[in-house]
Structure formats: C-alpha cells, structure tokens
C-alpha cells in the first residue's frame, strides 16, 4: 500500500481505494535536449517512487518534439542516469515520436470536428492578435476556413509543400479566454528537419502541449505529474482529452519544482556552461547534473534520501544545498572506508627512526564496521604531513605540530618537532622530528598529547592527482535574473593538487568512495582514475563549514 505522505500519494491511494484505478501508471517525460539535473531527480523519485509504492508502472518517455535541440547523446545519458538513480522503467523506452501517426490522425479528427484550423497569419500577426493578460485576443482572419480547406492545407503542410513559418495548425477554442493557453493554441508547425527517431518521415511536428496529453492518454497513464508552471496548461490538457475520443483521460497533478540555492536547475543554462567551456562537459563534477554529481561521488542513495526529505508540496521554495550535502555525508559516514591522504605535503624526517625500516601498521578500514576489515599502512623514517598541520607561530588554540611540540600521528606514534628547515625564501621545507617509540597504540607516560594529525610514508606513499571541488556558484541565487548567472561562477570551484596517498588506495576502482581522514569524502574519478593510477575527486568536506571564498 502506498503511504500517503504527501498530497500526490494521498490522491493515488484514494484512487486505488475508491476503485477509480486498479493499477497506477505514471511516466517520467524528459525532453532529450540536455542532461538531467537535481530537479529531475525529484521528478524521477516521485514518478518512479509512486509507481513502485503503489505496485504500478512507470514509463520512461522521451518528449521528443523539438528535433533540432535533441540528440542521441542526451537520450543515452538520460537512460543511464535514471538507472543509476536506481529505477527501471516498465516496458520499452518510449518516445512521443512513436505516436506521431496517431497524433496526426487526432489532428485530422479535430479539423473534421471544426475544432482546428490552419492559420496563415505571420508569427508577428499571431503574437499581436493573441492579446494580453488583461485584453482578449482577436480572431484570425483564417479562423473560419472550411473543413475541406483546412484538410487540404494540413495535407499540404504534411507533404512539405508549404514553407516553414507560412502557417500552423491551431486548435479552435476561444480567443477571448482568460487563459492565454486556450486562445487557439498552435498544435502543429512546419519544421523541415530530420528527427533522431523518425528520420525524414515528417516535416511537421506537433507542439509539446498537444503531444503530452495525447501521449499520456495513449499510454493509459493514470496520474500525469508535472511541475506547477503547467497548472495553466491543464485546461488545454483536459480540453483535448474531452474533445477527442482517447483511450483514457489521465489526471494532471502539479507539484512544486525543486530549486536549490547556489545552483542553477535549468538545462538551458547548464548547456551554456558546457557550450562556453566554463565546465568540462555535462558530467563535470561541479555540475548539478545527475552525471556530474555521480562523478563527484554523490551516492544514488543520498540523492533519493534528499528527494524524500524535501517532500512534495504545492508551494515553490528554495532548498538549502547544505541539505543535499548533509544527505551525502550521512550516507558516506557509514559506508566509506577510511584512508589517509596528504593533500599539501610537508616532509618530516624522524631522526631516531632506522633508515630503510618499514613497519606495517594495521588499521581498521572503518571504526564502526569491523566487517570492512583492515588495511596495512607502512610507517617509515620519512613521512609527509599536511602543511596546514604545522605552524611555526601557532595561533591560539592550535593543537597540531609546532616547533618543540608533540603531536600524535594517526594510527602511529607520537612525534616531536626538533628542527625546522627552510629554503632561501624562508619557506618551511622540512621538519626534523623524533619519534617516541613507546607510543604506538599507547599513551605516553606522564604527559598528555592532544593533537592528532594524518600522514603518509614518503617512501611508500603514492603521488596521486586530487581534484578539490567546491560549489560552482558563490552566490545563493545565481539564477535570480538581474545579473548574468555566469558572473557568479566560483573561480575556486576546482583546485587540483598532487597529493600523497597511502598505498592501499592504489587498489581503488573508479567510483570507489573513501573518507580521507580529517579531509573529507573522496571518490575515484569515473573517467580518469585507473587502478594503479588513481585520480580522486573531493565529494564533500567532513562538516558543513562552507563560506564564500
Ligand atoms: P529545464 O527547465 O531544466 O529545461 P524541463 O522541465 O524543460 O527542465 P524536461 O526534460 O521537460 O525538463 O523535464 C522532465 C520532467 O522533469 C518534467 O516532468 C519536469 O516537470 C520535471 N522537472 C524538470 N525540472 C524540475 C525541477 N527543478 N523540479 C522538479 N521537477 C522538474
Ligand atoms: Mg520541458
């Protein structure tokens, strides 16, 4: 039974209980004109989730009525993303273009019923005669063409005998309607271009608002879930399905779209970033696309959890991106093995530790999950620690390494800094330290050492590229409209460092995720990482400490 945890699920549960529907069928209807983003994840989780919970079906249907903007690349990426998110559509991948013949026949029926006509006004005339929110539109001089004339003209449109833009087929409803969507909306236009699915078969293409309800009806969709901006389109959705004898009359239900701060969720804008090479493709880990978030290391479970937490409502709002990051952290905390990586290496030589000696320290892969087992961390005379863990002149409260001070090496010994070596420019280049050999896994006698820092053997550690990702925009509302959203691109959203990683990480396969202790969560890059030559992406920091740079 579907749990009525939002108004849509309540409606679906009621429709099943009342017997209005025996089986629920929903659909996810992307237009293949770009990659899916976090907003689509909400729609996917809703449509597939409702169907799954109600024991019904969910179709994947490409709304492919704009061939010039669509491509096979997008079709493939969208399928990959839906599956990666953990959902499987019922039956074959469907296309609105599968129904082009049926849609054409319905248009002919509308003409025969006197409910559609070919309008030969220019685009400007049509716009001028549409009216405004406060003024009614004006009837087209072609509105009263006879059925025969309309049939003949529509046949000519279809046959390619008329020029693009010379006319359109319009539904004949009411030019004075208070709802502009009912002022004789265009339903077919001439576009003399090939289509990725139907090739050269058509040179007229149906409009989205005409295609969508009919495709829903042909698939016997029970609940057609869409975002709030389609509320004003619902009267036309219902008009079409009431006017034509369709096999079903699905119910359109609108919900609030997802907006996330520090993010843009518009395919058109994301495409600009890709086209203008401001990011490295749609799956750049900085992108709020599903494939970008995947590459960044966001687990599919955390995206589903996020969509569950934000819920489904009727009122638009903006969700804090911190909530998404929280869901990512929460999942990784309990699933990602720990490892050590030094992102900004500073050399440490342990003067009292035998040269050439390699001690194999065993450490748990996860502090709370012993079933994950252990890894071996080599300990040697020469090590790297992070530059940020040493301060010559420490600020107040600094608990890490200082000249003359002691610190614990995580999983290792306590060391003391005896000497600081600098280059001619006065920069610290090496620390000479002594190692308290009695402190492996033990506290020292008679003194407390508070700080713990991570480290990697200089001799056995491995150099690896680490890509430090951060939020793509510095402003909470890059999309607000008064300023070009691209001016808010965060120049520090990607910082590449040559890190030194513990050798156990060499085994990482693409997409393996880790917590680099004290640094954050990292994921072996899907495209560029190879076993033996890993490249890691920072998925998210350990805590929510984000501030604009
Ligand atoms: P965009 O504005 O990014 O181009 P779109 O709505 O044009 O998005 P479609 O491919 O038509 O993209 O969307 C497929 C489905 O995803 C639609 O049902 C749409 O309502 C839904 N969807 C798109 N963006 C969001 C969002 N931000 N929140 C929730 N659902 C969304
Ligand atoms: Mg759309």
Defining traits:
549 residues; alpha/beta; Rossmann fold; 7-stranded mixed beta sheet; binds adenosine-5'-triphosphate; binds magnesium ion
Give a verbal description of the structure.
The chain is an alpha/beta fold and 549 residues long. The protein has a domain at 7-255: HUPs (Rossmann fold, 3-Layer(aba) Sandwich), CATH 3.40.50. The chain is built from twelve helices and 27 strands. It has helices spanning 7-17, 38-53, 72-84, 100-112, 123-129, 147-159, 208-218, 234-243, 267-275, 290-296, 300-310, 321-333; strands at 25-28, 57-62, 94-95, 116-119, 168-171, 186-190, 204-206, 223-227, 251-255, 258-260, 317-319, 338-339, 341-342, 345-350, 359-364, 374-379, 382-386, 406-409, 414-422, 428-436, 452-453, 455-457, 462-469, 494-501, 513-516, 520-524, 535-540. The strands form seven sheets. It has a seven-stranded mixed β-sheet. The structure holds adenosine-5'-triphosphate (ATP) and magnesium ion. The site of adenosine-5'-triphosphate (ATP) has 16 residues, from helix 2, strand 8 and helix 9.
Write the CATH homologous superfamily of the domain at 7-255. Answer: HUPs
Percent of residues in beta strands: 15-25%
Named at the architecture level, the CATH assignment of the domain at 7-255 is 3-Layer(aba) Sandwich
Termini separation comes to 48 Å
The gross shape turns out to be elongated
Major sheet, described briefly? Answer: 7 strands, mixed
Poorly predicted residue ranges: none
Number of strands: 27
**Radius of gyration based on Cα positions:** 31 Å
Distinct ligand kinds: adenosine-5'-triphosphate, magnesium ion
CATH level 3 topology of the domain at 7-255:
Rossmann fold
Binned, the helix content reads 10-25%
Main structural class: alpha/beta
Mean pLDDT: 97
Provide the spatial order of strands within the biggest beta sheet: 12-25-26-27-23-24-13
CATH class of the domain at 7-255: Alpha Beta
How many DSSP helices? 12
